[in-house]
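Lab notebook, bench 4. Still working through the backlog of constructs that have no structural model yet. Next entry is a single chain of 81 residues. Request: give me the structure tokens for it.
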Amino acid sequence: MAVFDYRHYELAAGTMGLTRRYFREVNEPDTVRHRFTLMGPWEVVAGTTNTLHYLLLWTGAHVQFWKPMHEPTPPPSVGGS
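Model written out:
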């Protein structure tokens, strides 16, 4: 099982170049350390926007953290048998 994590950031005007550099120099090495895959950042090219979108792929031990959200817990027993 894999968990996809979508994120987006509204950036201050004029900081897109700095943010791209941050992703290259800081985020890419962190993917190895934290064991996730950066599926790819993208920007909206229509109009003027300062929004950065990206998708992360989590696998392995990190998925176990999310697994309880997908499995319902049994209801408590009534009568205490």
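Notes after review: The mean pLDDT is 76. The CA atoms of residues 11 and 38 lie 19 Å apart. Flag for follow-up if needed.
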